[in-house]
Design goal:
Blueprint lengths: L29 H12 L16 E5 L11 H12 L2 E5 L5 H12 L3 E6 L2 E6 L1 E5 L3 H21 L4 H5 L6 E4 L7 H10 L1 E5 L1 H10 L9 E5 L9 H12 L4 E6 L10 H9 L4 E4 L4 H7 L10 E6 L3 H24 L18 H8 L9 H22 L2 H14 L3 E3 L2 E3 L9 H15 L1 E5 L2 H6 L8 E5 L5 H19 L8 E5 L2 H13 L1 E4 L5 E4 L1 H33 L33 H10 L2 H7 L7 H19 L4 H4 L28 E5 L8 H5 L3 E4 L4 H13 L6 E7 L3 H25 L18 H4 L17 E6 L7 H8 L1 E6 L6 E2 L4 E7 H10 L1 H12 L2 E7 L23 H21 L4 E5 L2 H11 L8 H6 L17 H8 L9 H7 L3 H5 L3 H8 L1 H12 L4
Parallel strand pairs: 2-9, 2-10, 5-7, 5-8, 6-7, 8-9, 11-21, 16-19, 16-20, 20-21, 22-23, 25-26, 26-27
Antiparallel strand pairs: 1-3, 3-4, 12-13, 14-15, 17-18, 22-24, 24-25
Length: 1042
């Protein structure tokens, strides 16, 4: 069947006076087709009108200039050229040089000026490029790289030394959050042009207030665009910029492909950023892979993999922890069958964000899930930390961690009611395996032969030729690391052409870096029984043994107090308010069945099993930290002294250096705290930690000759590959260490797999990506529009308004941390930011709204600030309103927020109930104090925007000047509005006797801080607040406690 309308398929348009025109039955050609459409455009009846805009477009023309860039590889140059000529979203693989591309792109685009051609008119203006969403540490590195580019271009194009001295400032200037009140400084920064890094909150305020016009911005570069959401300030800025500038560019860059999740993530991100192009550059891209594998055949470019075997005890502990993890995960899935996802699988347990993702999937129903489920989520996080500590911490420190977990699972008391907080996984046999082998690794007793001197002088019996010492097992990687460094030193001593670069040792955590520094300082080479040379760190472990003694004394006292409090609370235990763990046979395999089969005691055997662990002799045997025997400790230290004496001839070396700490440079300390000593680059061993934000230029700055990766890291491996490709003549020799058949290896392989799968999904989506045509105000989440609420009738004295009439809301500048201002803009309301003293949102001359999210509401009730804010609203406005806004990802109730507590504090059902009742009681007290206070309840910011739209339908527009003047003392007002005070400090100030709501402003005018206030004399206080109030305040501050 043909898709065209034929004679037998008659088509009659009843609303048209004549039948639709048909294409003439002639041969189709380009000239005739163009003539036909030109004829149709003249306006025949019955045709669809074609609207053509004759307005000339604005075309930016940049100055043609030649610049030097730091783009040593070909694919870098291709990426930069593509981003220079097209607006779009760039997604790079991890470690492929995202910061390097951003720096060169920023330098190339920040030209001195840009010419705008609008028809026959050409306008020249200063260029201004905005950098958004960059972290502070990244900004520091970018400023250094841009300054280097500036010097490079200055020297290459023959500029004089005088001009070079004027360019010591980096091309990238920064406007920090501290400049929020300094509009003059920000305006000068905008007028100067160039590259500018600025906070999103400040820029959106400046765009709305007119301090900077979108036409004055040449373009915007958004880094870490994976964090940009529909309601974020970055998206707000892009919308404001695109609405007011039709010629500027927007470029977005990301190096985290795994963060692009959800349904059609590329299309969603492009819509949020208002972009149409996307560029994907994974590690397996043809250009990248060919370039990085070009020299793989050379031995100098190959990475030496060092697979280290776990000890037998570490292997058993690892298997036991994995079994506990699997049991917890199965139990969590059994308790939440309707909430589980495919991600809840042991295959993904090695993902570093596994616990966070599980927690987010339960977030919306967190207040409804059982107490056991919450405990299981916490236990999975604990076990994952334990699994990571097994491979990074020494045996004594790991045993302390295990013992701390056991001690923390004693019956505790909260709010006077005893609550069972025992973790279910401790009921398993594998938990006993973990505890037993952790103790055996650290403090297991082994028999060793005595030294030759002791055998000859003290004993003659063959049975007394041995002595007991503690095991003090060392990590297997320590010996391999010492051997690698020894081989490097030997290779350097015999090679003809010595490389001058240092040895770079990379690890994951700062505590691991400190540990390796101490281990390398204490490592010794010795021969074992078979005559083979080995490296031992026994001296480091003996030092750790002394720290264990200090920890043991503290934990013993803590355990005794905890047991005492638990026993006291058990006497008053109330069964009504205690929620027991509801466990299944997953944690009680091979144990006795429940003694009672009644439903209300389900799981009693499981709880009783844990109770037996902590009762009587069983608790003393399994749960307490092992006491050290003085004679064995003395034997361990004497043997170490004898070894040191045999090596150096000084038996006091251990005692002299027992408290020495390895010097680690800390930027927070003064340089005077460290001894200044020159070390040749040839002899340096530099220990650094993995950091995706600061490691970009690390290899280029240090130029190491040897790189040792103590732990696997995908991003840094890519950076090493790039460094090798950049330096083919003198590449660094790399060593890659990992534990074979361990969770460390599995985590690394999983990360590679996840990145590959993420890029595969993005590539498939890009292949079917269509062109987006939509209005900037279009959103399915807004079911209410301006046309639905405006009053178009003139009756009863009402004002006539249409949907084209402008609506505006005066918004406090501090409210731009929330998403509501962005949503007000999208719903069609003009947002006017000001520094308000009374209220957060001024909807009309009568309506003032104080917005409170639930955490902010709770803190305001505790500090009493909400009562003062309501008093001020009632003083200046007819309809003061309190808006209580909930989180759209949580339930529309107080239950999810009732468990807000300090980190590390376990919640219980009793405290949650009391907190929920307390919140409701506080709201009731507030309404009793202010009966005319209007309260709005909103389940999300989207609903709040539509509530504001309805409230403004029949109201006059607010006056900005009136809103600024209300609540401000004229004597302290500034040209930029009311000053921005530290509310927390003012709250503390008003608690002092003699300081009232009326006279505190006199102190604020004359005193900058609380420390300055407490040092005021009596006479100075009298001049500010009067004699009587000054005496009260002075006596309160200077009265002795004892």
């Amino acid at each position: 069947m043909s898709l065209f309308v034929e004679d037998e398929d008659s088509y009659v348009d009843r609303n048209s006076p004549s039948p639709p025109a048909e294409l003439p039955p002639v041969e189709i050609s380009v000239e005739k087709t163009q003539a036909y459409y030109a004829q149709q455009a003249q306006g025949n009846d019955g045709n669809i009108p074609v609207v053509r805009s004759n307005e000339a477009e604005t075309i930016p023309v940049y100055e043609s200039k030649e610049i030097c860039c730091t783009l040593p590889l070909r694919f870098y140059q291709e990426i930069t050229e593509t981003m220079l000529t097209h607006d779009g979203l760039l997604v790079l693989g991890r470690g492929l040089g995202c910061d390097m591309v951003t720096v060169n792109l920023l330098y190339a685009l920040s030209s001195p000026s840009v010419s705008l051609q609008h028809g026959n008119i050409t306008q020249k203006k200063r260029s201004l490029v905005i950098l958004l969403n960059a972290r502070d540490d990244e900004i520091v590195k970018m400023k250094e790289a841009l300054l280097e580019l500036q010097w490079m271009n200055s020297s290459h194009f023959g500029e004089t030394d005088e001009s070079l001295e004027d360019d010591w400032d980096s091309p990238l200037r920064v406007v920090s959050s501290a400049d929020l009140n300094n509009t003059t400084k920000r305006r000068l920064a905008y007028e100067k042009g160039g590259a500018l890094s600025i906070s999103s909150r400040i820029l959106v305020v400046d765009l709305l207030t007119g301090i900077i016009s979108p036409q004055d911005i040449t373009g915007i570069i958004v880094t870490h665009c994976e964090r940009v959401k529909e309601t974020s300030n970055e998206s707000f800025i892009v919308n404001l910029y695109k609405d007011g500038n039709d010629w500027g560019f927007v470029k977005a860059i990301s190096d985290e492909p795994e963060a692009f999740t959800g349904f059609t993530p590329l299309a969603t991100k492009l819509k949020v950023l208002r972009l149409s192009n996307v560029f994907l550059w994974p590690r397996f891209h043809v250009e990248v892979s060919q370039l990085l594998l070009k020299g793989s055949g050379k031995k100098t470019n190959m990475v030496t993999e060092i697979t280290v075997r776990l000890s037998s005890k570490m292997t058993k502990i690892q298997s036991a922890i994995l079994s506990c993890l699997q049991a917890c995960l199965l139990e969590l899935r059994r308790h939440n069958p309707s909430l589980e996802t495919e991600y809840w699988d042991m295959e993904n347990i090695h993902d570093k964000d596994f616990v966070l993702r599980v927690r987010l999937s339960l977030e919306s129903q967190w207040h409804r899930i059982s107490w056991t489920s919450k405990q299981l989520v916490h236990d999975i996080g604990t076990l994952k930390d334990l699994l990571s500590a097994l491979l990074t911490e020494d045996s004594l420190l790991f045993y302390q961690r295990v013992q701390g977990i056991v001690d923390a699972n004693i019956k505790s008391s909260a709010n006077g009611v005893a609550t069972s907080t025992m973790s279910p996984w401790l009921m398993m046999d594998e938990a006993t395996t973990i505890i037993a082998f952790a103790k055996e690794r650290a403090l297991g007793k082994v028999s060793v032969k005595k030294s030759s001197e002791q055998r000859n002088e003290l004993f003659t019996d063959a049975d007394e030729q041995s002595e007991l010492v503690y095991n003090l097992e060392e990590l297997p990687k320590w010996e391999q690391l010492a051997m690698v460094i020894d081989d490097i030193m030997h290779e350097r001593s015999v090679e003809a052409v010595k490389s001058e670069g240092p040895i770079l040792l990379m690890c994951a955590l700062e505590k691991t870096a400190r540990q390796l520094s101490a281990v390398l300082a204490d490592s010794r080479k010795k021969e074992n029984v078979s005559g083979k040379c080995i490296y031992t760190s026994r001296r480091f472990m003996v030092k750790q043994l002394r720290k264990y003694l200090e920890w043991k004394s503290i934990t013993t006292l803590t355990r005794e107090l905890t047991l005492q409090f638990a026993n006291d609370a058990a006497e008053n235990e109330s069964e009504e308010l205690t929620e027991k763990l509801n466990t299944s046979k997953t944690f009680t395999r091979g144990k006795d069945g429940p003694q009672s089969k009644r439903r209300r005691t389900r799981g009693a055997a499981a709880v009783a099993s844990v109770s037996r662990l902590y009762s009587g002799s069983s608790y003393e045997k399994n749960a307490t930290a092992q006491d050290l025997e003085d004679d064995i400790v003395l034997t361990v230290e004497n043997r170490l002294k004898n070894d040191l004496k045999a090596e150096s001839g000084d038996e006091n070396e251990l005692d002299e250096n027992q408290n020495d700490d390895v010097m680690i440079f800390d930027v927070k300390k003064k340089s005077d705290d460290y001894p200044i000593e020159h070390i040749d680059k040839f002899n340096q061993i530099i220990i650094e930690t993995y950091d995706d934000h600061t490691n970009e230029f690390l290899l280029q700055e240090l130029s190491p000759a040897y790189i040792i990766m103590y732990e696997p890291d995908l991003s840094f491996i890519r950076r090493v590959e790039i460094y090798q490709a950049i330096n083919p003549t003198s590449p660094a020799k790399a060593f890659f260490m990992y534990y074979g058949t361990s969770v460390e290896e599995q985590s690394h392989l999983l990360r590679i797999k996840n990145e590959k799968q993420s890029f595969t999904r993005l590539i498939k989506e890009k292949a079917g990506l269509g062109k987006l045509f939509s209005s900037e105000h279009e959103s399915w989440k807004f079911h209410l529009k301006k046309s639905h609420v405006v009053n178009t009738r003139i009756a009863g004295g009402a004002d006539f308004r249409t949907e084209t009439d402008e609506m505006q809301v005066v918004v406090d500048s501090r409210e731009f941390n929330s998403s509501l201002p962005k949503l007000l803009y999208r719903v069609g309301i003009k947002v006017v930011p000001c520094m308000l003293t009374v209220g957060d949102y001024i909807l009309s001359p009568k309506i003032c709204v104080e917005r409170k999210a639930i955490p902010d509401l709770i803190s305001s009730f505790k500090s009493g600030r909400l009562y003062q804010q309501c008093e001020q609203m009632f003083r200046y406005y007819e309809l003061p309103t309190l808006l209580i806004e909930f989180d759209e990802s949580k339930s529309f109730s107080f239950e999810p927020f009732a468990e807000l507590r300090p980190p590390g504090l376990k919640a219980n059902i009793t405290s949650s109930r009391l907190s929920k009742q307390e919140i409701q009681l506080k709201i009731t007290e507030l309404l009793v104090s202010f009966p005319k206070l209007k309260v709005l309840w909103s389940y999300s910011p989207y609903e709040t925007a539509q509530i504001f739209l309805e409230l403004k339908a029949n109201q006059h527009e607010p006056n900005v000047n009136d809103a600024l003047e209300k609540g401000v003392n004229p004597s302290i007002a500034t040209s930029d509005g009311p000053p921005m005070f530290n509310d927390d400090a003012i709250d503390v100030l008003q608690t002092i006797p003699g300081i009232t709501n009326l006279n505190y402003i006199h102190i604020v005018k004359n005193v900058l801080s609380l420390s300055e206030f407490v040092n005021l004399s009596r006479e100075q206080l009298k001049d500010m607040i009067g004699e009587e109030n000054a005496n009260k305040a002075y006596h309160f501050i200077n009265r002795r406690v004892r």
